Amino acid sequence: MSVDIAEYKPSKPLNSFVEFYWEGNFNSTFEPILSQLVIPNGFVELVIHLSEFHCDLQDGHSWGQSPDYTIIGLYKRPYEVQFRSHVRVFGIRFKPEGIYNLFGIPGSQFSERFEDMELVLGSHFRNYCSRLREAGGINQKLKLTHRYLLAQLLNHHPETTYLNRAADLIRQANSTTKVNELPGKVYISRRQLEREFKEKIGLSPKQYMRIARLNAINRYLQTGTEISLSTLSLETGFADQAHLCREFKTFSGVSPVKFMESVEQFIVNV
């Protein structure tokens, strides 16, 4: 297997803002080009390259090497990433509202694109990344990251808002919460909730819920447990099998059956 990803949960003070940390090895078998499609997952990814070898991403119509420290926003369609050598990275998966809480930067700023995070955050962030690259092992990387993010948390004094609560409700595994039920659950008007989602996350609550349901489907598919698509559609809140298949193809580009036949071509991080 030429792709290996290990995940690490954040400490309690940060788990409202960070989904997890991860360490990845890509193209460890040194294929000439390893091409993968990344399935939308509803999170903002910070990818810190640990060596001079980087992945390639498409910017408009051209391909190029990704920045040393790449922030990747929410996508609504799969996007391609290529590896021309063995690429080692450390990643932070932010809840999209969490990146605003920690840095004062709305996730909507990176919608459907990537950016050089050093240009966004400046020298203090570059210093953290330099120490991270020099760290001896994963435990040291996690400690450095915890201290850096905790300092951001203390600087910004974020409060958990109705946006955080609504986004968490949507992300709950197999959630069947309806969009029109959300305002009542978080005690805010629908108009305010829509505005906050679009300003801070870059998607409407309905769009974010569609991605969350895709994650629920992929959790089932990755367990390897045999389950009919009709049963899966009921488990994940779809009206019927046809509805599930349409949504799955919209976000992944292929049907669930085709996806399972070629799953090694995709990066699915749910």
Walkthrough of the structure:
By secondary structure, the protein is α+β, with helices and mostly antiparallel strands. The chain folds into two domains: 3-156, Jelly Rolls, CATH 2.60.120; 162-251, Homeodomain-like (Arc Repressor Mutant, subunit A), CATH 1.10.10. It is built from eleven helices and eleven strands. It has helices spanning 96-103, 117-121, 123-134, 138-156, 162-171, 182-186, 190-201, 205-223, 229-235, 241-252, 256-261, and strands at residues 3-8, 18-26, 34-38, 44-49, 55-59, 62-65, 69-72, 79-83, 87-94, 114-116, 266-267. The strands form two sheets. Strands 1-2-9-4-7-10 form a six-stranded antiparallel beta sheet. Helix 3 runs antiparallel to helix 4, helix 5 (162-171) packs parallel to helix 8 and helix 9 (229-235) packs across helix 10.
